[in-house]
Write a structure and sequence with these properties.
heterodimer, A: mainly alpha, B: about 325 residues, eight-stranded mixed β-sheet, 12 strands, about 20% strand, globular
Chain lengths: ~325, ~325
């Protein structure tokens, strides 16, 4: 019961943000120089042709009417057709989305599986050389751009050692196992920065929690150090952890554009790059809309987890 | 043999040049079922004493010396290795009920967890015992309270929960570090009654750390006054309060609002407790003492002073202080 109430509240508070996001996406789009009708018909099209194309695409309507039509259709799952290829945008997106979702999920797992234990261990050994080694490593990790890391990983592990397939990748539909394997390096390139960030945040939250009065109470009553660290201090550190994981998700979705380009993956990021080059408004809108929905969904999940993890937030 | 026998307990903080000594050879003994007050201002060493006994000082920064034997078994060996806390029949209640409970776990789970660790109980048995403990510390509707988180309880209730958690450890010795300082006066009286009652019922000894002589007068059998990391006076509460022998105990007593006359200025002890690490060769209290003489510059011993009393003041037999009847 409590869960549904909490989930409802969080969802309701996300709706205005979503509307605002679509609004901004739609209007910013129109500020990009260049006329899609010209892009379709070519530089030597007659004015009549251009007018006809604009009318077909609804570009002769007032902006706000264009927005309403687009938003209404989008709500029902119809994202329109691509100016360029004439294909359904929904189909285009659905074709590209899985690989990006798998990539970002794997990258998020990399971030958490490395960052969380590293942060907890560093906090337990605070101010030792082990702690300093980890925090210095984390600082470097945050500073490394993911495209550079991606290139280094390709050079060392696929071109050099030959452990992983080179850029290009296998289509997911053809061989899921092989495709996942091919995503390991991209996921590392995308996720290691997040691991560093999570490590730092978890470390500082744990250090703070391990010096509190209630930890002293737990020690006094004879709990093992393991239980104090991994159960009590960790649960008390879960709010900053949830926050940083939420931030990582938005960063990963953004980073996927670059990493997909480096590794030649045809995900939604590369779709966005192609669409931008071709001024394919509808596709760009769809991609940004999907990204916005993903980020908002993450925020809703983070918000719900706040309320479930900390009983003081009601 | 007493329940707790502490010999020349010393605590030093820090390393090398910067090391400061916080406790200087504190001797302490408590009998089973006895309630002993450990009294002193902030910085006198009373909390450090209790934390050292509990093993709650950070081993990286604190060095503990001396011996402590509880119920026949030493708390640590010659090399300073402590017996696991879960095996030692000792528990502690802290000053701050607002922060001493884990905020994100329910009262019930914190109690059950203690019982499972301390008494190797199964989940169901621990739950039943937890309910009984909550009842024993005077919490009404324990079944509902089990599900409550600490922030849903008042300060007094939280302190009762703390006491229940301590009882879950089946302690022969309970260390209570200013357990009533942070709650209001009516609750304070209830908590004191509760602790005294539980001690009597369960034959549990209590080391009651406090700066409040009123609390000592109401609760304790014996009292120990500490100053600058040393015991300066000890004896039965009634006698020490009726006729304090150490000028510091006398000073604390006269600083009690109840002892002062109405409308008169409240008495204070001039100066402050010397910070840990201060080199003092003579009487440690001399710089603040109004009865200081040249003899006070020589080292002071804890000397017998009448029946069952000891005092660290060379002039104790020459000076008479005004006390209060309890």
């Amino acid at each position: 019961m409590k869960f549904f109430k909490v989930a409802g509240l969080s969802l309701a508070s996300a709706i205005p943000t979503l509307l605002l996001a679509t609004f901004i996406v739609f209007f910013l789009q129109r500020l990009i120089p260049g006329d899609p009708a010209v892009a379709i018909a070519g530089d030597y099209a007659t004015p009549e042709n251009l007018a006809r194309i604009r009318a077909d695409l609804g570009l002769d309507q007032p902006l706000f009417a264009q927005y309403l039509t687009w938003a209404g259709n989008a709500f029902t799952g119809d994202l329109g057709t691509s100016f360029q290829s004439g294909e359904s945008i929904s189909a285009l997106v659905l074709d590209r989305l899985p690989i990006t979702l798998i990539l970002t999920t794997m990258a998020l797992l990399v971030s958490i599986l490395i960052g969380l234990p590293a942060g907890v261990l560093a906090a337990q050994k605070v101010d030792t050389s082990f702690d300093r080694f980890l925090t210095t490593g984390a600082t470097f990790g945050i500073a490394i751009p993911n495209f550079w890391l991606g290139m280094m990983l390709i050079i060392v592990f696929s071109l050099g050692l030959g452990w992983f397939p080179g850029p290009g990748g296998v289509r997911f539909a053809d061989d899921p196992g092989q495709a996942m394997f091919g995503l390991v390096l991209p996921a590392l390139a995308l996720g290691l920065v997040g691991a560093a960030e999570i490590c730092r945040q978890v470390r500082s939250a744990m250090v703070e929690n391990l010096s509190t009065d209630y930890v002293r109470t737990h020690r006094a009553k004879g709990l093992s150090n393991r239980s104090i660290v991994w159960k009590h201090a960790l649960k008390n550190s879960s709010l900053p952890f949830a926050t940083i994981v939420g931030l990582q998700v938005s960063r990963l979705i953004g980073g996927a554009v670059v990493v997909e380009a480096v590794f030649g993956l045809s995900g939604i990021g590369s779709l966005a790059v192609e669409a931008t080059n071709q001024r394919d408004y509808g596709v760009i809108q769809a991609v940004v809309l999907i990204a916005a929905v993903l980020v908002l969904a993450t925020n809703v999940i983070v918000d719900i987890s706040y309320r479930l993890l900390d009983p003081r937030i009601s | 043999m007493s329940l707790l026998e502490v010999k020349s307990l010393e605590v030093r903080f820090g390393h090398g040049e910067k090391q400061v000594q916080a406790l200087y050879g504190v001797d302490l003994s408590i009998d089973a079922g006895e309630i002993v007050g450990l009294v002193g201002e902030s910085g006198s060493g009373k909390t450090v004493t209790s934390l050292a006994l509990m093993g709650l000082l950070d081993p990286k920064s604190a060095e503990v010396g001396g011996t402590a034997v509880l119920d026949g078994a030493p708390l640590w060996d010659e090399r300073g290795r402590r017996r696991p806390r879960s095996k030692v029949p000792m528990a502690m209640v802290f000053q701050e009920p607002m922060t001493a409970l884990d905020p994100v776990f329910t009262v019930g789970s914190q109690l059950v967890e203690t019982l499972r660790v301390r008494r190797a109980m199964g989940r169901r048995q621990a739950r039943a015992e937890a309910l009984e403990l909550l009842e024993a510390v005077g919490i009404s509707d324990p079944t509902a309270r089990m599900r409550a988180h600490p922030h849903e309880l008042s300060g007094g209730m939280r302190q009762r929960v703390m006491i229940a958690i301590a009882l879950a450890c089946e302690p022969k010795l309970l260390i209570a570090d200013e357990p009533t300082t942070a709650v209001d006066v009516t609750i304070q009286a209830q908590l004191l009654d509760l602790i005294r009652g539980l001690a009597r019922e369960r034959g549990m000894a209590v080391l009651f750390v406090t700066h409040d002589l009123g609390v000592v007068a109401e609760t304790c059998d014996r009292m120990i006054t500490m100053y600058a990391g040393r015991v300066v006076e000890r004896g039965p509460v009634v006698e020490v309060l009726a006729e304090p022998a150490h000028p510091y105990t006398a000073g604390l007593l006269s600083a009690l609002p109840a002892a002062a006359e109405r409308h008169a200025r409240l008495a204070t002890i001039p100066g402050r407790v010397p910070p840990p690490g201060t080199e003092i060769t003579g009487c440690v209290f001399a710089p603040r003492c109004s009865h200081r003489r040249d003899v006070c510059d020589q080292p002071q011993e804890l000397l017998p002073h009448g029946d069952g009393r000891e005092v660290r003041c060379i002039r104790a037999s020459e000076i008479q202080f005004e006390g209060v009847q309890v």
